[in-house]
């Protein structure tokens, strides 16, 4: 452990020992029918966050399990002080089941049901009452020092351009190495956008089991596309990427994989799973920005680094998202949304290492309380990767 990195962050210690960089009270709707009531509660009670979604009922099998795991993971994220789980009452994903799993962490958890509480208005009133008490209790908690060994960062690549693999992505790779070297965890995601670069990651696997899993996950993602009659390896799925100057998905992948830095790949986990090892971890997610962001946050990421060559407003209701532009022209055009500019690398004003260190320093500031632009603008995006049909 580098002693220079110790105690440089300030966060909120949770009952299970984890540390959050935010202190949210989450209003968690387990069914789409409850999302509007959840939104009303957040408008009434300062210090609460929530999200809109279309899930929670008529799901079966692995698809049910993955959605359930995502709900629970959002509540368990260290950035959450306490949770009001809001259900309808008759849905597949029962609010009490979700609350029961979150409560095992020792966090304050309450359940409010629209059917049990006599309809929408009574539910909003009860939810707001419970949430207000949680927020007041949360406000009494003070930040305390912690170091990078307790931090999980998510890494994400949005719409790319010809600069992505040369500037922002390798700069994030430097950050990934710095966090790993400090004893922390860096999550690499976007399986779709690693197709064509899998052999490079397999070479860095800590053992043959992890290397084998790399190829299995890539093959499974390709098979999903083939079942739809699409050869995803030879085409680029995003018009924005093509307009940005990329010729193929493999070109996108070779640039996106740079976010992983150079350290060994410790494990490959499923969507919305919590890492079991420190170091570089790959989470199996789609390339869809919001779905992968949600998966990493549900997997415990307290901070997310999001590179973009096209510009994006994307944010999370729970985790601060630091957005990094790959070129200066886009950064100047979208200053409302982009936090940092790595276009300085392209212009020869900064090395990749220096830009990476600058991003690393920004993580320190954000982890200790500085708001990202997506937080200021209340960009609370949420979407679950569905792997099965609705019945």
Structural features, described:
The protein is α/β, with parallel strands linked by helices and 391 residues long. Helices cover 38% and strands 16% of the residues. A 7-stranded parallel beta sheet has the order 10-11-9-8-12-13-14, sandwiched between helices. Strands 4-3-5-6 form a 4-stranded parallel beta sheet, sandwiched between helices. It has a 3-stranded antiparallel beta sheet with strand order 2-1-7. InterPro entries: GD_AH_C, GD_AH_second, UxaA_altronate/galactarate_dh. GO terms for molecular function: hydrolase activity; lyase activity. Belongs to the UxaA family.
Task: Summarize it.
The chain is an alpha/beta fold and 391 residues long. It is 38% helix and 16% strand.
Search tags:
4-stranded parallel β-sheet; UxaA_altronate/galactarate_dh; 391 residues; alpha/beta; 7-stranded parallel β-sheet
As laid out across the biggest beta sheet, the strand order is: 10-11-9-8-12-13-14
Evaluate the radius of gyration: 20 Å
Class by helix and strand content? Answer: alpha/beta
Low-confidence stretches: 1-7
GO biological process, one term: D-galacturonate catabolic process
Family: Belongs to the UxaA family.
Protein name: UxaA family hydrolase
InterPro entries: GD_AH_C, GD_AH_second, UxaA_altronate/galactarate_dh
């Amino acid at each position: 452990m580098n002693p220079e990195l110790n105690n440089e962050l300030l966060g909120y210690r949770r009952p299970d020992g984890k540390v959050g960089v935010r202190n949210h009270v989450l209003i968690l709707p387990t069914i789409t029918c409850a999302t509007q009531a959840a939104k009303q509660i957040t408008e009434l009670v300062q210090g609460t966050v929530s999200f809109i979604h279309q899930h929670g009922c008529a799901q079966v099998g692995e698809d049910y399990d993955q959605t359930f795991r995502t709900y629970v993971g959002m509540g368990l994220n260290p950035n959450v002080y306490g949770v009001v789980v809001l259900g309808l009452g008759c849905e597949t994903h029962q609010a009490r089941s979700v609350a029961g799993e979150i409560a095992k962490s020792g966090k304050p958890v309450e359940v409010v049901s629209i059917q049990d509480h006599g309809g929408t208005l009574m539910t909003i009133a009860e939810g707001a009452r419970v949430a207000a008490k949680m927020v007041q209790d949360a406000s009494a908690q003070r930040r305390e020092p912690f170091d990078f060994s307790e931090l999980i960062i998510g890494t994400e690549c949005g719409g790319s351009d010809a600069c992505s693999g040369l500037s922002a992505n390798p700069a994030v790779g430097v950050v990934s190495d710095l966090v790993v070297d400090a004893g922390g965890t860096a999550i690499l995601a976007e399986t779709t956008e690693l197709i064509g670069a899998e052999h490079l990651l397999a070479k860095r696997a800590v053992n043959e089991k992890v290397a084998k899993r790399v190829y299995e996950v890539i093959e499974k993602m390709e098979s999903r596309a083939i079942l739809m009659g699409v050869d995803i390896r030879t085409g680029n799925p995003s018009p924005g990427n093509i307009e940005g100057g990329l010729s193929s998905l493999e070109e996108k992948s070779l640039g996106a994989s740079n976010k992983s830095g150079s350290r060994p790949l410790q494990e490959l986990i499923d969507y919305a799973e919590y890492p079991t090892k420190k170091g570089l971890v790959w989470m199996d997610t789609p390339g869809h920005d919001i779905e992968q962001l949600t998966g990493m946050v549900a997997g415990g990421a307290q901070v997310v680094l999001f590179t973009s060559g096209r510009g994006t407003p994307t944010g999370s209701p729970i985790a601060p998202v630091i957005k990094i532009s790959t070129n200066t022209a886009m950064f100047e055009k979208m200053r409302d949304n982009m936090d940092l500019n790595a276009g300085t690398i392209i212009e020869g004003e900064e090395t990749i290492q220096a830009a990476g260190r600058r991003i690393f320093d920004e993580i320190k500031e954000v982890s200790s309380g500085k708001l990202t632009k997506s937080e200021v603008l209340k960009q609370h995006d949420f979407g679950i990767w569905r792997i099965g049909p609705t019945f």
